[in-house]
Amino acid sequence: MVFLAPLLLFGLLAALIPIAIHLIRRERPPKVVFGSIRFLKNTPKKLILFQHIQQWVLLLLRALLISLLVFAFARPLLNQSLAKLLDADPQSAVLVVDATLSMRYPGVFDEAIDEAREFLQRLGPGDEAAIVVLDERATVLIDFTDERAALMRVLDTLEEPSFGSTNLRSGLALADEMLAAASFENRSITLISDFQTTAVGELDGSWKLARGVAFTPVDVGVEATQNLTVADVRVPSTLVEGMQASPVLARIRSTGTLPIERAQATLLVDGDIVERIDVELTDVSEKVVEFAHALTGSGEQGIEIRVQGDDFVSDNSRFAAVTIEPKVDVLVVNGEASSDWFDDEAHWFELASGGGVTGPFSVTSTVPNLLTPELIQGSEVVVLLNVGALGLQQARELVDFVRSGGGLLVAPGDQAAEVTAPLDSILPGSLAGSQRLRAGDYRVIADLDRRHPLFTGLPVEWSTRFQRVWTLTPKEDAVTLMRFDDATPALLETRAGEGRVLLTAMPLDSEWGDFPLQPLYLPFVHETLDYLAARPSEPSRFLVGDSGVANFREVGLSRLASEMQDQRGGGGQTRLVAINADINESSLASASVESVFDAIINPENASLAPREVRTAQRMIELEGPQRLWWWVLSLVLLLLLAETLVSNRTYR
Q: Which one of 1, 128, 361, 410 is least enclosed by Cβ atoms within 10 Å?
């Protein structure tokens, strides 16, 4: 039971008035000296006892009359849930707890849990609450309940923050959505966070809380912070065995509010410390360090850059996964071999492919009559340079090689007219003829598919001149990658099974043009061989919470199931990947809670009546159908009649 005018209950003190009057006017019989009492009549004891009872009943009736009258004017109200009405205006509250990486700063998360416990302790007996935690994503720990013990038990399960990044909007949006289906009109969200500036910046004002939802921010951040982090690690995800690797670069950054002058960066390879570097940060907040250690060997290697010199160690490491692959096996079939390098068809191509010790390709050269199935199957890419006729068995082996995932480059020359016939099933086109142009006339590359991966690393302008070219007739499924200035195809591509085939309209030596003498010849050869090799490439770096690594909640090196197979149909089951935290989580500068409030609070909330007014209106609405005061006053009238009857029959 509650009262719409509870202050009138002080009128219950008026019930003491008849009691006081009764005690004050209580008279003791006087003592009178008689010579003899034999002429006085004895009063029966039962009559005296009855009169005393009447007086006490009359006293209680008068006190009860006053009390009921006070109750009636206080306007009592009953509800099916007394506990909810004892709270006058029960609320539906959502507690959002930030449990991301920045909350790992010493002492911050402990304070957040203490604030959360105090929030739960302040809940009224009729309030209901839910808890949402922000880690990799917003998650509902417990839905609305009015059992405080259950809320406390769930809160105790939050032992430490995750390594996820802060997304305040997702947590607030989830809480706002939950409140839309809450039981009470009094709705509120309490957010406990360190309110990083980087996270608050996402609240740009384009999204607001629903109308009527109150918001209370609780800042548990630390004003004076010292922090060092590895902002980035620069190392190729894939290296080629035997080639000189690029140095490992790391960007060391001071992200706290207090400067740090000195730090130490450590390079670890597969968990072993291989190099340490002292970093001077006296006048700068960021510095790039270069490690002298060269990555050697083969296979997968896990790289960790660790920085020391601050209080916040949870973001002191950054990881990278490197795969050192063997060289691409390239088989060059020289259709016009010569002891004179100038006349040798494969001379320029072998120079450009870097078939030496430090090159990315392992080049094997042969001639058509020595082309064996073993040489073909032991290669990743086969290059036919001005090759004439091929045997049927050689052609079948090449077709099977391509269909199983191998790469084939056909560069016809002056004796290659017959090579296309046995390979017609896998070639993107056919050779229609070749004539030498008139003196002074030439063909140039006028157009190419810039979106194709083969040309992403090549220049747009080509100055190569060709005095003679083949006329190519493309098939329906062929793709024209390059065209001459007369719009005829210069380079065709097709897919055959799992493999790729490229057909050029010119040889790759200097007999028909100056192509090998141009600066873009070498990158063209490299890009072409890499494209034809088609080695599987999968991302090796992820952030905590990325969709591809949803099960990884901590930073470090781990293994992830591979989705690709190599060209021979094998493929590893897992691959080494690096899981890092979002670098924005290392920025510990805090924004004001006022800016958060202004960014998300609904402007229509200002037009709502104050909570006290809405509480009074709600209670009046509940009182209307009950009208308990009317029944109490009716009882007062009945008791007043009873008091009159009893008082008239009571001895005074």
A: 1
Among candidate residues 187, 194, 144, the one with its CA nearest the CA of residue 166: 194
pLDDT tens column, 378-435? 999 999 998 888 888 999 999 999 999 999 999 998 877 666 778 889 999 998 888 7
Cβ contact 174:143 at 8 Å: no
Q: Do residues 141 and 210 share a domain?
A: yes
Check: CB of residue 181 under 8 Å from CB of residue 149.
no
Number of neighbours of residue 270 by Cβ within 10 angstroms: 13
Asked if 189 contacts 215 with a C-beta cutoff of 8 angstroms, the reply is yes
Asked whether residue 652 is domain-assigned, the answer is no
Contact 123, 93 (CB under 8 A): yes
- pLDDT bucket at 82, cuts 50 / 70 / 90: very low
Q: Is 627 part of a structural domain of the chain? A: no
pLDDT at residue 48, as a whole number:
58
Predicted local confidence at residue 87, as pLDDT: 47
Which of 148, 136, 133 minimizes the C-alpha distance to 96?
A: 133
The reported pLDDT for the residue numbered 409 is 95
Let me know if residue 208 belongs to a domain.
yes
Q: Is-contact 204 596, C-beta < 8 A?
A: no
Q: pLDDT tens digit string along 6-53?
A: 677 777 777 777 777 766 766 666 666 665 666 666 666 665 566 667
Q: What's the CA dihedral at 521, 523, 528, 534 to 10 degrees?
A: 170
Is 88 a residue whose pLDDT tops 60?
Answer: no
Question: Could you tell me if 161 and 103 are in contact, meaning their C-beta atoms sit under 8 angstroms apart?
Answer: yes
Q: How many residues does the chain have?
A: 652
On the question of pLDDT at 346 being above 60, the answer is yes
- Domain hosting residue 101, numbered range: 84-223+590-615
How many structural domains is the chain composed of?
4
> Final residue of a domain: which of 16, 51, 77?
77
Is the per-residue pLDDT at 606 higher than 60? Answer: no
> Token pair of 519, please?
């600066």
* Tokens coding 178: 């939950």
Mark whether 88 and 115 lie in a shared domain: yes
The per-residue pLDDT for 560 is: 83
Tell whether 94 and 181 lie within a shared domain. yes
Residues with Cβ within 8 Å of 569's Cβ and at least 6 positions away in sequence, in order, are 404, 405
Q: Give the integer Cα–Cα distance in Å for 537 and 522.
A: 23
| pLDDT value for 81 | 45
Instruction: Spell 388-420 as b/e; 16+ CB within 10 A means b.
Output: bebeeebbebbbbbbeebbbbbbbbbbebeebb
One-letter identity of residue 133 = V
Read off the tokens for 224: 């004076």
191 within 8 A of 218, measured Cβ to Cβ? yes
Biggest alpha carbon–alpha carbon distance for the chain? 173
**Is the distance from CB of 566 to CB of 535 less than 8 angstroms?**
yes
Kindly state whether residues 156 and 212 are assigned to the same domain.
yes
CB atoms < 10 A from the CB of 594, how many?
9
Residue 319 above 80 pLDDT?
yes
Question: Distance between CA atoms of 416 and 391, rounded to whole angstroms?
Answer: 14
The Cα 190–Cα 134 span in angstroms is 13
- For 579, residues 6+ apart whose C-beta sits below 8 A from its C-beta are 319, 542, 543, 544, 549, 552, 554, 555, 556, 557, 558
Any idea what the CATH number is for the domain that residue 209 is in?
3.40.50.410
Q: Which of 11-15, 125-129, 470-474 has the lowest mean pLDDT?
A: 11-15
Q: Are residues 30 and 99 both part of a single domain? A: no
CA gap 430, 505 in Å, rounded: 10
